[in-house]
Amino acid sequence: MRCNLTPAWQTLQRHAKSFAGFDLRSAFALDAERAPALSQTAPHVFADLSKNHVDAATEALLQALARQTGLAAHRDAMFRGEPINHTEGRAVMHWLLRQPEGTLPGALAVPLQQVHDTLRAMLAYAESIRADAQLTDVVNIGIGGSDLGPQMAVLALQHLAIPGKRFHFVSNVDGHELAAVLKCLKAENTLFLIASKTFTTLETMTNARSALAWFRTQGGTDVARHFAALTTNVAAAAECGIRTTFGFWDWVGGRYSLWSAIGLPLAIAIGAQGFRDLLAGAHAMDQHFQSAPFEANLPVRLGLLDVWYRNFLHYTSRSIAPYHSALRRLPAYLQQLEMESNGKRVDRHGQALPYGTSPVLWGEPGTNGQHAYFQMLHQGTDVVPVEFIAVKKPTHNLADHHELLLANAIAQAQALMLGQDDEGGHQHFPGNRPSTFLLLDELTPTSLGALIALQEHRVFVSGSVWGINSFDQWGVELGKVLAKDIHARMASGDLVGLDASSAALLQRVRLG
Ligand code: F6P
């Protein structure tokens, strides 16, 4: 049943009204057990949800909403490999990429075997590149899911990266990006990885062609050694002359593809065992999502909290605050994961929705954000839930720094909640501002895998409750079509049929 038609939705609406006076400070004062009651561990992640605008009744009602919208059945359909991405007629099986070998009977046994055969080949290749001292530079050319995941993860696990190799990520069609990278490369020392699920994406194809041309003008001839394609479209890669290929399958969405051949830059950086550990961490979270009861199921609780905030308390954004500079690309990664998945305006039957979906995600690492936009989080007019992500153990020896970092993370969550009295004055902080605190013991491949799978599944949960297809992305198509048309008009100067604003802009950029 569509979420807004369920009895739980109506009850939640009444609950939200009676909740208007909810204050975190009183909630803690009234309930000494609030912090432990609203905290939990999940594989490799500890979560403190207690500084959120929820109470036990809210959570119980949200879980009823999940039951009434068929969340468990939908989740199980995904894990059975049913084609739940119905607008593209595809299964959604990124989780299969981290499923241990030989553990599934029936129809999924064959794809699982293919996953492991490909994984073995890809990891053997990664190890051969690691052992090849001549190849000092690895350039990943890809965009969206074919860029953000590997880039985020290579940065996050930089402390484990093989010395002597540099990793570059070129995504934008903006030639400034590729030109700046090429400037510091030598053809004989460079491996280009052309990462594209479809092998048709304009940006990636343009960059790949330019990289190939550059390689040849530099005297390079051995394309098989210096170029590899990571794609579901091996035939298209071959047409471009790239015959070293690692495939994956149409049931892996682009933004869910880090676990596939798209993860090759990471496998080169941290090695085969590191990559297997990443998969194991994600698999542990898959099992948690599948088996923990809703009230102790972290992806379920986070996803339902997202629905509560978006639809009942009308908070329209979420700020991501990783207190770890190695996680600096995590906000960008999560933006695509959440907003491309759940930024939808129709339900699974194509009917317009009468309620909001994806929040806007944004953020920067702490403590930097504190000296930039945290002003608005503390004293602005909108309430923005913040998600702190911190790591107990640093990977450096500057112990003082890490203590200061963690102290700041905890203090910010505290300041948001407690506020400060200066009635009417500029130093008044209203407080009662919500946050979630996620804590990892260490930033390892395993914990990173678990953290990312947690985020994938919480996006599944809210998308499922909203009754949308979280696995297509038709909203990116129109711009691609129009860009083709405008590009053709740039050459011809034809303005016929263009709106007046676009025509004037086109004329301006065509001026010599
Ligand atoms: O245009 C959006 C999108 O399709 C994303 O979903 C995807 O991650 C990205 O483009 C890149 O696509 P591809 O891997 O096919 O080049």
Provide structural commentary:
The chain has 512 residues and is an alpha/beta fold. The chain is globular and about 75 Å long. 43% of the residues are buried. The chain has 19 helices and eleven strands. The model has no long low-confidence stretch (mean pLDDT 97). β3, α7 (148-156) and β4 form a beta-alpha-beta unit. The strands form two sheets. Strands 1-2-11-10-8-9 form a six-stranded mixed sheet, with helices on both faces. Strands 4-3-5-6-7 form a five-stranded parallel sheet, with helices on both faces. It folds into three domains: 51-80 and 292-469, Rossmann fold (3-Layer(aba) Sandwich), CATH 3.40.50.10490; 94-270, Glucose-6-phosphate isomerase like protein, domain 1 (Rossmann fold), CATH 3.40.50; 477-510. Helix content is 47%, strand content 11%. The longest helix has 28 residues, at 264-291. It binds 6-O-phosphono-beta-D-fructofuranose. 6-O-phosphono-beta-D-fructofuranose is lined by residues 143-146, 196-198, 201, 204, 254-255, 340, 473, 476.
Bound molecules: 6-O-phosphono-beta-D-fructofuranose
The figure for the number of domains is 3
Biggest beta sheet summary: 6 strands, mixed
Low-confidence stretches: none
The amount of helix comes to: 40-55%
CATH superfamily (homologous) name of the largest domain: Glucose-6-phosphate isomerase like protein, domain 1
Q: What do the pLDDT scores average to?
A: 97
**Pattern of helices and strands:** HHHEEHHHEHEHEHHEHEHHEHEHEHEHHH
Question: In the CATH hierarchy, what is the architecture of the largest domain at level 2?
Answer: 3-Layer(aba) Sandwich
Shape: globular
Instruction: Name the beta content range.
Output: 5-15%
User: SS-based structural class?
Assistant: alpha/beta
**Ends apart, CA distance between termini:** 58 Å
- The value of Rg in angstroms is 24 Å
| CATH topology heading of the largest domain | Rossmann fold
DSSP, total strands: 11
- The CATH class designation of the largest domain is Alpha Beta
Give, in spatial order, the strands making up the sheet with the most strands. Answer: 1-2-11-10-8-9
- The number of distinct helices, counting runs of at least 4 residues, comes to 19
